[in-house]
Design the sequence.
């Protein structure tokens, strides 16, 4: 198995094959995730693919939701990400791909996680055609967005994955 179990909290280990949802835990190290964002080129922001929630530069905190901490089973609060880039590439929405680190309270699922805190690490712009309103976005447009988030943008998948894998020893890879 190229993805061995990771030590997350104390001596507890969580295997890479999670068969059921785990309750939210306070992670000492961030969890690596991948996702797809919609682009708001006017504002230079990345938006969640399913909601109009914007991801801000730096650390994003989940909004208060019905007076409970994030995430909570049975509620859709928190920041979502997949464990693998291929899962984000195969998602139903086609936007800008990237890597993020989830931290704080983290709820683990079979294919990804929800967290109370998240930060964008890098963007990956494939040769796809991204549209915003009536405009086709160029690599230069994506570079401007990446600059706002103070993250690199890659056009080659191998370079993107190399960067993400080597960015920090503190990030847990599931």
Sequence:
């Amino acid at each position: 198995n190229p993805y061995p179990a990771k030590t997350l909290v104390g001596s507890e280990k969580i295997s890479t094959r999670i068969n059921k949802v785990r309750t939210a835990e306070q992670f000492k190290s961030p969890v690596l995730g991948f996702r797809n964002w919609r682009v708001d080129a006017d504002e230079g922001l990345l938006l969640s693919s399913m909601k109009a929630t914007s991801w801000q530069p730096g650390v994003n905190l989940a909004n208060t939701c019905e007076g409970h901490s994030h995430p909570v089973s049975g509620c859709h609060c928190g920041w979502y990400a997949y464990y693998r880039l291929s899962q984000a590439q195969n998602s139903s929405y086609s936007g800008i791909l990237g890597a993020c680190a989830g931290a704080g309270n983290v709820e683990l699922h079979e294919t990804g996680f929800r967290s109370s805190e998240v930060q964008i690490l890098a963007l990956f712009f494939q040769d796809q055609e991204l549209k915003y309103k009536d405009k086709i976005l160029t690599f230069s447009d994506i570079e401007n967005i990446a600059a706002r988030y103070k993250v690199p943008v890659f056009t080659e998948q191998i370079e993107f994955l190399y960067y993400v894998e080597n960015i920090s020893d503190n990030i847990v890879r599931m």
Summary: Residues 38 and 51 are 10 Å apart (CA to CA). DSSP finds three helices and twelve strands in the chain.
